[in-house]
Specification:
InterPro entries: DUF1918
Order of helices and strands: EEEEEH
Structural class: mainly beta
Pfam family, one: DUF1918
Distance between the termini: 27 Å
Domain DUF1918: 1-58
Shape: globular
Strand content: 35-45%
Number of strands: 5
Protein name: DUF1918 domain-containing protein
Organism: Planobispora takensis
């Protein structure tokens, strides 16, 4: 998994009652874009250091722009 500042981190719930969380990557800890990431969560504006698990994915700005252009 690789990311840049400004990408979205989406973490899916792994259990039935879990909610999906969306965050904005605000800081990288490694120059190659590998985890962990500092993430500001959209739902509560809190920041945390995240070591993404298998239920997480990165959505780049290019991916978001391409999705909106397809609408």
């Amino acid at each position: 998994m690789k990311a840049t500042v400004g990408d979205r981190l989406i973490v899916g719930g792994t259990h039935g009652g879990d909610v999906r969380r969306i965050g904005v990557i605000t800081q990288l800890r490694h120059p190659d874009g590998s985890p962990p990431y500092m993430v500001r969560w959209v739902d509560d504006e809190r920041e945390s250091l995240v070591f993404p698990g298998p239920d997480a994915r990165v959505v780049t700005r290019q991916d978001r722009d391409a999705a909106f252009a397809a609408l």
